[in-house]
């Protein structure tokens, strides 16, 4: 597993945009984190009992496109200092999902009351990081333009199996004109720690998506007649496999409402 450390900042810890965002969510703000704290890495959460952590870690190794690990906690600890000095996994996400036997039973803004001493947190890279690079190239990001959550879909692309963890890959979608889609492939290929290049371009039905206007997670966005949908592996995939595995207990983020870290997006690029 690649170990990442928060980059040296010119800002003081108290003035980091990432920390300000976390404090706002800790205080109760609930909103999509797309575009929040520009320049800083966001992460998907999968929080599991320690007895499942080994199998899930292997699942991530088998499926690096949807599940690139950028941080992992010690057993029972709600802190991952490498991702943020004062970051608290229990309070710093806008909204969580609490799972029992594979079903969502609560969607709180704070999971302190659900916390247990046997939990292990995995933080997985998020495509919001490469969106900054796309925006820098002048490429439109539709869900940001419309101030909604990115649309996400379950597919017929099977993930590698590890223990109880198996199921379909989840993808996120952004529409582009064909020339921009080619450029998007080039740009996002530089960011393997945050899903990398797309897994599919064009016809949604070829990867099992019946209606692009009805995402399984997030919100629909319009696709113009001169655009094609471009699909990236998505860190919501663990929620699909947690559902399929019927785990007795788990906690995740609510799709589109991520953990904002102190890592810089530029540290995710490989070239």
Report what the structure shows.
21% of the residues lie in helices and 24% in strands. The protein has 271 residues and is an alpha+beta fold. The protein has 2 domains: 13-128 and 238-268, 3-Layer(aba) Sandwich (PSTPO5379-like); 138-237, PSTPO5379-like fold (2-Layer Sandwich), CATH 3.30.2040. The longest helix has 13 residues, at 50-62. The protein starts with 16 loop residues before the first helix and ends in a 7-residue tail after the last strand.
Summarize the structure.
This protein is α+β, with helices and mostly antiparallel strands and 271 residues long.
Q: Work out the count of structural domains.
A: 2
Number of H- or I-type helical stretches: 6
CATH-defined fold name of the largest domain:
PSTPO5379-like
Question: Approximately how much helix is present in the residues?
Answer: 10-25%
Terminal residue distance? 19 Å
- Percentage beta strand: 15-25%
| CATH C-level class of the largest domain | Alpha Beta
Rg on CA atoms, Å: 17 Å
CATH architecture of the largest domain: 3-Layer(aba) Sandwich
